[in-house]
Amino acid sequence: MMTLEKLQELKEKSRLVLEERLKEEDNTEVKDGNFILKGDYYRKQTRIALRNCEIIRPESIDEYIALDGYTSLGRILTEMKPEDVINTMVESNLRGRGGAGFPAGRKWAEAFKYDSDKKYVICNADEGDPGAFMDRSILEGDPHSVLEGMAIAGYAIGADQGFIYVRAEYPLAVKRLKQAIEQAKEYGLLGNNILGTGFNFDIELRLGAGAFVCGEGTALMESIEGKRGMPRTKIYRTAQKGLWQKPTVINNVETLANVPVIFQRGTEWFRGIGTEKSPGTKVFALVGKVKNAGLVEVPMGMPLREIVFDIGGGVADDKAIKAVQTGGPSGGCIPADLLDTPVDFESLAKIGSIMGSGGMVVMDETDCMVDIARFFLDFTVEESCGKCVPCREGTKRMLELLEKITSGEGTEEDIARMESLADTISSASLCGLGQTAANPVTSTLHYFREEYEAHVNEKKCPAGACQALLEFYITDKCIGCTKCARNCPTSCIDGKLKERHVIDTDRCIKCGNCASVCPVGAVIKR
Amino acid sequence: MIRFIMNGKTIEAEEGMSILEAARENGVNIPTLCHDKELTPFGGCRLCVVEVEGSKNLVASCSAKVREGMVVNTESEKVVKTRRDILDLLYSNHPQDCLTCEKSGECGLQDLCYRYGVKEGSFKGEVKNYAIDSLNPVMERDQSKCILCGKCVRVCSEIQVTSTIDFTGRGFNSKVTTGFDNPIDYKNCRMCGQCITACPTGALINKQLKGVRPWEVTKVRTTCPFCGTGCNFDLNVKDGKVVGVTPNPESPVNGKSLCVKGRYHIDFINSPDRITKPLIKKDGEFVESSWDEAINLVVENLKNTRDQFGGDAIAGLSSARCTNEDNFVFQKMMRVAIGTNNVDHCART
């Protein structure tokens, strides 16, 4: 049976092996006694949740143990009372990384309070925002950190059963988790009588079936219970009546991955990173029109500009940055002139966006903000569960209004209707999905209203992205090479050899072939 | 007791009560479409939203408990605007055919649109359009009129415990239907019609009541003649004819619940097959006779049998369709006049 001493021995032994391997592979360096990945991209980050990713081999529990894995759990089980664990968590002020930012310690304290024959810990790994892959990377790269975090949560609140609700679309994460759970059980770090302390904690996987709304806590529990994934009424808090009506704690993958480190290095260390109200780091999936797309983990409060330009390397093709979208379909677009906003829960909320689970999409001057709002609404309409009217019917109507505007049929009145409807959807919807569904519209209306107005009044898309509102035009730069005419699928370009060509806009289907084949850039969108 | 302020007045409510329940007890009419006090709260229609001071969003009063000192406004400008929007959204995705709808006059959606002045569905866009399912004998199911309040789903699973129907699809495309979208009477459904009673709109219609406007009928409360349970309901009488049955929530035994027989049995009342005169078999043929002749024949035969073979040679079977008084008199007759305990009744067990 695994004991604390044996764990320590194993750690020392494995550490030597790991060091050897890392030295050989030579893609890491040591900073303050910790391994970090080499390169500027990583050097500018502060990796806590991603601390082990790409450093240890995720299939190896020994390598996780080598980097202090399961020592927090061991120490907690042997030295700390559940109350102390909760106090530490409250003191750390670790806030939920899934989006809402609710302090994890307070969730635990609440669930601890209720007496029950059974309690549950759930790891929410139903990451669904378009373009987000923070949780996936942790599950695939460092599954044990999540398991350890869950076991600590279980000990703290008095639960002996955990569930990981993970998307079936993450087959590698599922495989790694299964393997990690098996290994941990084999080592006596999960299951019955963990480390000989009498504490039991088991973890099972539940696979999602592709519904975005199942990332919402109560819909997630309905789904685990085998029912249709629809959010519950909010009569009780999950901490009081959650899974099968028992006290339950639901934490996000990234939140749980932070937990063991907090116990290793102390709350003071943790609170020293980030801002006062949002301590620690946050992982972002930096994507879109940025040079170095990828996962970045930075201290909270880092200005957006630093993330996009210093780490991300700025906008691709050196175009002008227009906005950064944070928070996925529940978030908002932050205009370029607010790029110095520190990225933390409060600051982002103040400017009409949210932290969300960590999606960060960089947009340049060719991105139409109305079209961006339409894209996210399209996603929400698709993913609404259909339970409550404002979300089911309201988002659909809002999408129809946006489609009307982007196709050049919109009016000023449509903009006003959308604003009014956004208010109803936000304030009357049942769950977070509906309550935040209108954010992409309200934030773009707030910062880019003139783009909406250009669409409805001048029937123009300033960014040149809305197909219905643009036309292709051949300027006098044309050398009459006939390439465009030969590549036009509708034969709507006329012109003699070595003479300027003309597009018949009535027949043009705006496929853009002409512009891409023109050797002199004479075809423009206008 | 919890004390709090609703619409400027201090009211008291029991702990654990919802804001909606407290409001209704105090005569404040908060509208709902998905709420039913006999079913678990659903929180889907969002019409019961109210403003609670200190809450960022509006609060669904059906699923929020009263709290000491809370300040609630059930009809503020914001609340009314939101309800109007919700009704507009519902009606925009609903056939605009109230003039010919069977449910007109007792439709929850129509009533609330009237209350909040929603004249038309003002959002012009996609409207759901499903085929009507009416191949079964008892109900017409028009999904296009369904507002997805989920009452039928809950009554089917929580009261009838059959779970024949549930939500399928997602978002705008979600609908309430049976497994694999089969016709309603394909397998599990017991045709009890509980869902018809629960439905606030014209999505589920009792076929017997088609063509009958709700205001044309007189309701006569009676007891079901079918079994010994003694359910009450209202016979709907139009032009002196019973045209259908609707449950009466005041019924002490069954409340709003009815079974397939209770709800749909009335077709025998005016059936041409019904026997209204006594028939006596003469030379192998049933022949109409007078009541006197028939009763005399029965008396004579009973007497003869009793005198010749004794009272125990006769057995009496009574019916649950008779009243208690009839059944009492019948068993008395068997025991005293015939002299036997051979008397039984189909609903005895």
From TrEMBL, chain A:
Pfam families: Complex1_51K, Fer4_21, NADH_4Fe-4S. One of its GO terms (molecular function) is FMN binding. SMART domains: NADH_4Fe-4S. It comes from Tissierella pigra. This is 4Fe-4S dicluster domain-containing protein. The keyword Hydrolase does not apply. The keyword Iron-sulfur applies. Residues 469-498, 499-526 form the 4Fe-4S ferredoxin-type domain. InterPro entries: 4Fe4S_Fe-S-bd (IPR017896), 4Fe4S_Fe_S_CS (IPR017900), NADH-UbQ_OxRdtase_51kDa_CS (IPR001949), Nuo51_FMN-bd (IPR011538), Nuo51_FMN-bd_sf (IPR037225), Nuop51_4Fe4S-bd (IPR019575), Nuop51_4Fe4S-bd_sf (IPR037207). Belongs to the complex I 51 kDa subunit family. Keywords: 4Fe-4S, Iron, Iron-sulfur, Metal-binding.
